Structures are given as structure tokens and as C-alpha cells.
């Protein structure tokens, strides 16, 4: 193999291992740390603590920093140096290493390689992929994959009931009234609400959303794709779609940088980068004041991340990273939809126990297979 290609592929492997290990630490906290090919006798190893995993993630991502900045069309979708910098910056945010994250994010911003797309909706409707806002995205092909599951955004998110019927979906992931309330409505309604969520009576290409199954009055619209609902059918599985899924977008780099600036005492400049996201032409929300204090700016960043990245798998980790998951999730009646309320929910639709629910439990099947080498996370 060509040595230059071999070196690049090795760096890509470091990037992927670093990203997966970061996700492992975010989900489980302490977890097995595997850095070599294991024999059958070595297959089950004890957990390493989260900091040890973070250290390995940092090492891996630093190896990937010298990846190419961009690729030709035949290699589209591969990890770049900017993807490595973005994930490494996220790692530093988890560790509150603001000064270390700052130059990485500045490098991405100042590169001139990225910009926000004018149309927010086009980020998700399959009409644009691997574009100027993409930092790193999962490349999907419609006619391959696991039967009956396909791409999660279509299978799990599309309404199960009247409205957006062709292509279908199970409607398992449902917006809450609280999320709907998060979107600003004064002095104008945030256009990202209509781009992200079906509401009763919404017309999508002649399909009127009625929500006859779940009764919450809301459904995810973000990945509702135009024309035959954007679905490419193979073997009669209508929920396969070729729409890619962005793990990191330039909007996140801007909001991470705003967070770093706020934590380093520059709330005024932080507002500038939040406002870049709010000023996307199709969004065009009023600018934040540059006179907000630290707490006000933190709340503005929390809000902006929640509405900008709704259903993109960010908010749960954000709340844990900030240490406010319990406070946020236990808020009285936060999670009751106004249209239909199950009386069994009481005031505790979400049960969050401090010291437990910051991480997920290790799957019992893995503990059993390890013969006791793996130990369950605390309080599970």
C-alpha cells in the first residue's frame, strides 16, 4: 500500500476510534478501554474510568489533526482535520477546558471552508448533502442497510397516523409541548419550529396532519422529505432513505465557540456568534443584546442549542455536560402536552435520580458474558 495513503487511513481510524470512545464515555461514563486487537482470552476487560477514556480520546484525535482539510469528490464524507478539531473541542468542553477548545474552534471558523446554509429546512430534507455547513456527516445509501430499520429519522420519527403517510413511520419519537414552547413566538415565530415539528392541521404536500394515533398533537417534521416523501424504496421497505445525517454542523462550531467565550468571561463577543446562527436568512430571528451577563448568555446558548439541534441527539448530553439534567428534567409539568395528558404521569413524567441517570446502565447481557469482569454502573 502507498505509504501516504496508509498514513491517512490510520489517521482516519484514530478519528473514528476517538469519536466512538467519546460517545462511549458520554453514554456510560466508565467503560472498557480497548486500544488493541483482543484475543478470545482478553475479550472481556474491566472498565476504565471516564477520565482515562477521555485521555485516550484526546490522544486519538490529536493523531487525526493532520488529516486533509478536504477531499476530492471520490472521497467525500471522510474525516477531515476540521472534523477532528471539532470533536476534540467537544471533548474539551466536556472537561471544561475552555482555553484548549478556543483555538481549535477558531481554526475551523477562520478557515473559510464553512458557512451556514441559507435554508434551514434544506439541511434535513435530502436536497443538500456534504455541503458548506457540513463538518462530519454519516453517509447513507437508500437501498442498503438493515431491513425493517433503515434510517432512524424516517422509521422512528415520521408520524404514525394521518399526515405524511407515504413512506410511513412508527411515530415513536414525539415532540413535547415543552419543546414547542421553547421556540420563540414574539416578536415573530421562530421558523425552525415549522421546519422541525408537525402541528395539528399542518399541510405537507396535500397531507393534513391529524395525529390519530399518539394523540399528542405533534410529530417530527425535520426529516420529512419532499416529493414521494423523499423515500427510495427497495424490496418494499418504504422507510429507506438516502438522506445523510449530520453529526456536526458549522452551526454547532459557532455555538460551542460562543459557549467558550462566555465561560472565559467574554459574554459580549459570545452574543455575536449566537447571532450568526440566529441570522441564517431562513431563520432571521432578532439579535441578542451584547450586554447580557454570564447567566443570561448561558441561558441564551442553552435555548439556541435546543431549538437549532432539536431531535439531533444533542440536548440530553448537553444537560449532563452542564450538570443541570436533574434540575431541567424534574421541572414541574414540563413534559405534559396540552392536548392529551395521561393521568398516570402525575408530575413526574421524567424520573431523574442524581448520581444514577447521568449515565446509562451497562447492558446486563454484557455483564453476564463477562463472567463478572464488568461491573454495573453505580446505583443501577
Automatic annotation (TrEMBL):
Q: Does the keyword Signal apply?
A: yes
Specify one Pfam family: SusD-like_3
Annotated GO CC locations: cell outer membrane
Mainly localized where? membrane
Which subcellular locations apply to this protein? Cell outer membrane
| Segments forming domain RagB/SusD | 133-380
Q: Which domain of life is it from?
A: Bacteria
**Keywords assigned by UniProt?**
Cell outer membrane, Membrane, Signal
- The segment(s) forming the SusD-like N-terminal domain are 9-93
Query: Mind telling me which CDD domains this protein's record contains?
Result: SusD (cd08977)
Query: To which protein family does this belong?
Result: Belongs to the SusD family.
According to UniProt, the name of this protein is Putative outer membrane starch-binding protein
Supply the source organism for this entry: Algoriphagus antarcticus
